[in-house]
Amino acid sequence: MTNNVQAVVPARRRPRSLAQELVDSLSNQIRNGEIVPGEKLPTESEIMRAFGVSRTVVREALSRLQASGMVETHHGVGTYALKPSGMGDFRVDPADIATVRDIVVILELRICLESEAAGLAAARRTDEQLAHMREALDQFRAALVPGGDTVTPDFRFHLLVAEATQNKYFADLMSHLGAAIIPRTRINSAKLAHEDRVSYLARVNLEHEDIYEAIRRQDAESARAAMRTHLSNSRERLRRAQER
C-alpha cells in the first residue's frame, strides 16, 4: 500500500482549494504509477496526517476522484486506484453491482474475457511479468490467516494476467472494470459458499495457483481451462445462492 503520499498543503486555505490540491496530488501519483491500478489507497486518517487536512477535505477529494474515474470506493473495504486510459467513461460503476444477479452477470463477462486472456498470457508472458504474478499470489497467501487485505493482490493478479497478453485492450478493460469485479467486495462470498473465510480464500488461492502454473509452463489451453474453472466456480456458487 502506498502510505507515503508526498504533499504538504499550506495552512489557512479554503477547504475547496485544499480538496483540489489533494485531488491533483493523488491523481498525479496514479498517473505516474506511484499508486498502481488495483492498489488500495491509504486510509482517510493516513491521508489526513500526510497532507495536514481535515476529514471533510479528504472525503471531498476522494469523491471528486471517484467521479472522474480515477478511483473506486467500496464501503467498509477501502478505496482502490483505477488505471487512467483513453477509454473515456467506460467502466463498471460499483453502485450498479448491488445484487447477486449483478455479480453473476459480471462473472459471465469475465469468463469470456479472462479465459482467453489467460491463454494469451501463457503464450506471451515475460519472465518479469511472471515474477510479478508470483509476488501477487504470495501477498494473497500471506494475508489469509491474519485477516488482511486479499482484494488488492487478487485484483492485481487478474490485471497482471491481462497485461501479459501484450494486448493493451485486455488490460484497459480490466482496469476500468476495477476491483468491484472481485465478488467479495460486494457480498460475503464465504458465507454464501457455507465456508469460513480462511477455507474459502484458501480454495480461491489454489485456483489462482492452477492458473499461474499453466502460465508458467506456457500451456495456453490449460491456462484457459484453469481461468474458466476459477470464474465458473464463483458463478455457480452465486447461482445456487440465488436459487436458495
Describe the structure.
- With 244 residues, the chain is mainly α.
- It folds into two domains: 15-81, Orthogonal Bundle (Arc Repressor Mutant, subunit A); 94-243, GntR ligand-binding domain-like (Four Helix Bundle (Hemerythrin (Met), subunit A), Up-down Bundle), CATH 1.20.120.530.
- It is built from ten helices and two strands, in the order αααββααααααα.
- The chain has helices at residues 15-31, 44-51, 55-67, 100-124, 127-142, 151-163, 168-177, 189-192, 197-216, 220-243; strands at 71-74, 78-81.
- A two-stranded antiparallel ribbon has the order 1-2.
- α5 runs antiparallel to α6 (151-163), α5 (127-142) packs antiparallel against α9 (197-216) and α9 (197-216) packs antiparallel against α10 (220-243).
- It is globular and about 55 Å long.
- The termini are far apart.
- Residues 233-244 have a biased composition (Basic and acidic residues).
- One of its GO terms (molecular function) is DNA binding.
